[in-house]
């Protein structure tokens, strides 16, 4: 099943509550929350407070992508704020340890690699993860161009999942996804599509979400 996860990074933070309500009404499946700390990536976006504030405004799962240098020091805050999925970067933590920590709060666990990181770094996590994410742009900014080499990484990860009996595993892809390239992303084996610009820069969000579903 294809799920669409619009990233609120591309939205106006001054009405975040209205935004998540609108996303739900427009058929989104998850709300993708891009958390940036100014260290792992240069920009700073928002933290657990935002998650706590939007939590009561929607019943959609909140998919928290932590682009932070020390994710282990923030898991508790995001879990208590109401995150449904927490994604941590394999570049900055021990995934086994972090997954245990996330699981301890009853939150779904996910891991991600940057474009320049080998997809094999996610293989050990595939056994226990609820989702795995591949960055298809360099993290830090919305509105970048999709890196085509990601398609091979998606295929490799999907094959690996099938080989270990995890064909149920959600594979999410994040960055530069448009109505044009989404078909290739899905054909390669991804089923969770993050989209910032493609949703929030469109005149009709419901239509944009429907088209991204392929
Ligand atoms: C980049 C973020 C992405 C990004 C997606 O650091 O993780 O979620 O906002 O935005 P678009 O779809 O505009 O590339
Ligand atoms: Zn993201």
Total tally of structural domains:
1
Biggest sheet statistics: 8 strands, parallel
Percent range for β-strand residues: 15-25%
Q: How many E strands?
A: 8
Low-confidence stretches: none
Radius of gyration: 16 Å
Please give the alpha-carbon distance between the first and last residues: 11 Å
CATH third-level topology: TIM Barrel
Strand order of the largest sheet: 1-8-7-6-5-4-3-2
The dominant shape is globular
Q: Strand pairing plus helix content: what structural class?
A: alpha/beta
Describe the SSE topology.
Blueprint (H helix, E strand, L loop, with lengths): L2 E4 L9 H10 L5 E6 L11 H7 L7 E6 L7 H7 L3 E5 L5 H9 L4 E6 L9 H4 L4 E5 L14 H14 L6 E5 L7 H7 L3 E4 L1 H4 L4 H8 L2
Parallel strand pairs: 1-8, 2-3, 3-4, 4-5, 5-6, 6-7, 7-8
Supply the key terms.
single chain; 214 residues; alpha/beta; TIM Barrel; eight-stranded parallel sheet; 33% helix; binds D-xylitol-5-phosphate; binds zinc ion
Characterise the protein shown here.
Strand 2 (31-36), helix 2 and strand 3 form a beta-alpha-beta unit. The protein is built from 9 helices and 8 strands. The protein has a single domain, classed as TIM Barrel (Alpha-Beta Barrel). The longest helix has 14 residues, at 150-163. It is α/β, with parallel strands linked by helices and 214 residues long. It is globular, with a radius of gyration of 16 Å. Helix 2 runs parallel beside helix 3. An 8-stranded parallel beta sheet has the order 1-8-7-6-5-4-3-2. The structure holds D-xylitol-5-phosphate and zinc ion.
